[in-house]
Amino acid sequence: MQAYHLVSGAQVAGLERVERPAPIAGPNEVLVRTHAVSLNYRDLMFARGQYGAIANRPTIPVADGAGEVIAIGSGVTRFKPGDRVINAYFPDWIDGRPTPVKTRDSFGAQIDGVLAEQFVANEDALVAIPSHLDYAEAATLSCAGITAWNAMFVEAALKPGDSVLLLGTGGVSILALQLAKAAGLRAIVTSSSNDKLERVRALGADATINYRDTPEWQNEVLRLTGGIGVDAVIEVGGEGTLARSIQSTRMGGTVAVIGGVTGFGGTEVDPLALIVGVKHLTGIFVGSRAMLDALAQFVEVNRIAPVVDRVFDFEQAREAYEYLDAGKHFGKVVVRVRS
Ligand SMILES: NC(=O)c1ccc[n+]([C@@H]2O[C@H](COP(=O)([O-])OP(=O)(O)OC[C@H]3O[C@@H](n4cnc5c(N)ncnc54)[C@H](OP(=O)(O)O)[C@@H]3O)[C@@H](O)[C@H]2O)c1
Q1: How would you write 69-105 as a 3-class SS string?
Q2: Element housing 185 (H / E)
Q3: 21 DSSP β-pair partners
Q4: In the CATH hierarchy, which fold is given to the domain comprising 145-283?
Q5: What is the CATH code for 2-140+306-336?
Q6: Ligand 1: residues whose CB is within 6 Å?
Q7: Could you give the CA distance from residue 9 to residue 3 in angstroms, rounded to a whole number?
Q8: Global pTM?
Q9: Per-residue confidence of the chain (339 residues) as pLDDT tens digits?
Q10: Which of 261, 262, 322, 324 to mutate for ligand 1's pocket (most ligand atoms within 8 Å of CB)?
C-alpha cells in the first residue's frame, strides 16, 4: 500500500511517500481502508520534533482517520466489513479517567497513524461514523472534536445557557463553536481576521472580538458578560493568551488548557486570581473513545456538519501540512486518501 513516512523532527520537508506492506488485522483488530484524514496542529509539532520524546524512526504520521472496514480479525464483534469508522486518538483510552498507560500511545506519533491507504486498529479504538457525514467531515472528529467535547461538556460541564470563549478559528475552536451552538451555549469568538469573524457569526457566534485590533481582549469579554466573565474558555493559545483567558473567566469558571499556538513556554499565573476567583485550570489531553461515542451521537442527533476548510489529494500531503502551518485556514484541513 501507499503511505507516508515521517521521522519526528524531520520537518514537513521530511514527509516521504513510500510503499509499505498492507497491515493485517490480528485478533480483535479491524483493517480499515482509509478514505480521508484530517491534520491537527500536533502533526506540525511532530514534524518539528516538539511532540514529546518520540523514537527516531520512520512513522506513518497523522492521528485522525476515516474509512471503511475491509477485514476483521478473530473475535471482532463491534464491526463488520463495509462499516464506516473513525478512530479514537488514543488506542488504549477507552473510557474512565486518563492514566499514563491509557495515554502513552497515540496514532501517528508513538505508533503508526493513518496517512496511508490502510490502517489497523483494535475494534475498541473505533467508532461508527454519524450517518449524515462524508469521510472528510468524519475525519475531523478524532482529535479536534473529542478535545472540544471533553473541554466543554466533561471537564467544564457546560449546560444550555452557559457561555464559552473560543480563541481563534482553527480546528478545535470551530468544532467547539458548532457543538456549543447545538448545545444552546452563548459563544464569544476571537480571531485575527475580520473576514473569519464574519464567518463565525454566520455559524452562530453570539459575539466576536478581533484580538489584533483589541489586544486587551479580556476587557471586551468582561464587558460582553456584564463584568462577570465566561463560564469556560477553550484555551488553545498558550503562553500568549493564558493570563488573559483566566481574567476572562467568571468566578468558579473553568479554563480548559488545551494548546499553545502562541507557544508552550512559561507564563505568569496569578495564584491569588485563581484563589479568590475560585477558578479551575484544567489540562485537556484529547479524550477517550467513550467521549468520541458521545460526540458522534451528539453530531448525529444535531445533524452537525464539521467545517472542512480545504481538502487536499493524497499526493499533496506536504502542501496540506504547509497550508495548516500558514494559519490561513478556518476549521479543518483534510487529506483525501481515496476518492
Ligand atoms: N490538549 C489537547 O488535547 C489538544 C488537542 C487538539 C489541539 N491541541 C492544541 O490546541 C491548539 C490548537 O489546535 P488546532 O488543531 O485547532 O490548531 P489550528 O487549526 O492550527 O489553529 C490555529 C489557529 O489559532 C489561532 N491563533 C493563533 N494565534 C492566536 C492568538 N494569539 N490568539 C487566539 N488565537 C490564535 C488562529 O486563528 P485566527 O486565524 O482566527 O486568528 C489560527 O487559525 C494547538 O496548540 C494544538 O496543539 C491540543
Answers
A1: EEEECCCCCCCCCCCEEEECCCCCCCCCCCCCCCCCC
A2: none
A3: none
A4: Rossmann fold (3.40.50)
A5: 3.90.180.10
A6: 40-42, 143-144, 147, 167-173, 190-193, 196, 211, 236-237, 240-241, 258-262, 284-286, 324, 327
A7: 19
A8: 0.97
A9: 999 999 999 999 999 999 999 999 999 999 999 999 999 999 999 999 999 878 889 999 999 999 999 999 999 999 999 999 999 999 999 999 999 999 999 999 999 999 999 999 999 999 999 999 999 999 999 999 999 999 999 999 999 999 999 999 999 999 999 999 999 999 999 999 999 999 999 999 999 999 999 999 999 999 999 999 999 999 999 999 999 999 999 999 999 999 999 998 888 888 999 999 999 999 999 999 999 999 999 999 999 999 999 999 999 999 999 999 999 899 999 999 987
A10: 261
Q: 192 alpha carbon to ligand 1 midpoint, in Å?
A: 12
Residue ranges per structural domain of the chain:
2-140+306-336, 145-283
Residues 6+ apart with CB under 8 A from 193: 169, 210
Can you tell me which atom of ligand 1 is nearest the CA of 285? Answer: 3
